[in-house]
Amino acid sequence: MDLSSERDAIETFILASGSTGNSLFIETENKKLLVDAGLSGKKITSLLAEVGRKPEELDAILVTHEHRDHIHGVGVMARKYKLDVYANEQTWAAMDPLIGTVAVEQKHIFDMGKVLTFGDMDIESFGVSHDAAAPQFYRFYKDNRSFVMLTDTGYCSDHIRGTIKDADAYLIESNHELEILRMGLIHGA
């Protein structure tokens, strides 16, 4: 997806989506990041190559929540490519024992309801309904344009609808697995 005029481009590539792994690549004129790294570092590197990008070009990883299909490659990517990793406190507490050592200086708290200025874009975080510690998703702003990423949510509240209203583009993924709900299984565990 390319929200572009040359000056205000936000380019995105869905590298993977689904219960086997999730990762979204986002690029602006001067920043490149992943939202989630739910596959192995090797697989993410391969998928980046398919869209003509290299992991060495990445600046950071934003994490939505601690389920394995969103964090599997976070630790290895952070260590190997010296990437900063952003997540809220509850997500850090839940994922820290699962991703291996990440240097303290690479760990950043990005709590829900906050806006992070990241190079030439602003990123707004917002909470969603999902079976995780404190799941959050993002709205990306660049100049006059915005892009919303909203996946893994069980319910779209008035607050979420207000937060995502009038974006220029949306990435919305949702699924409802009745059998998993009946069995009481937890997605991403």
Describe the structure.
This protein has 189 residues and is of the alpha/beta class. It has a single domain, classed as 4-Layer Sandwich (Metallo-beta-lactamase, Chain A), CATH 3.60.15.10. It contains 6 helices and 12 strands. The protein has a 7-stranded mixed beta sheet with strand order 1-2-3-4-5-6-7. Strands 8-9-10-11-12 form a 5-stranded mixed beta sheet. A hairpin with a 6-residue loop joins β2 and β3. The radius of gyration is 16 Å and the shape is globular. It comes from Spodoptera exigua (Beet armyworm). This is Metallo-beta-lactamase domain-containing protein. InterPro entries: Metallo-B-lactamas, RibonucZ/Hydroxyglut_hydro, WalJ/YycJ, WalJ/YycJ-like.
Quickly list its features.
189 residues; alpha/beta; Metallo-beta-lactamase, Chain A; seven-stranded mixed beta sheet; five-stranded mixed beta sheet; 31% strand; globular
- Distance N to C terminus: 30 Å
**Looking at the structure, what is the overall shape?**
globular
Question: What is the CATH fold-level name?
Answer: Metallo-beta-lactamase, Chain A
The gyration radius over C-alpha positions equals: 16 Å
CATH superfamily: Ribonuclease Z/Hydroxyacylglutathione hydrolase-like
Largest sheet: number of strands, sense, barrel closure? 7 strands, mixed
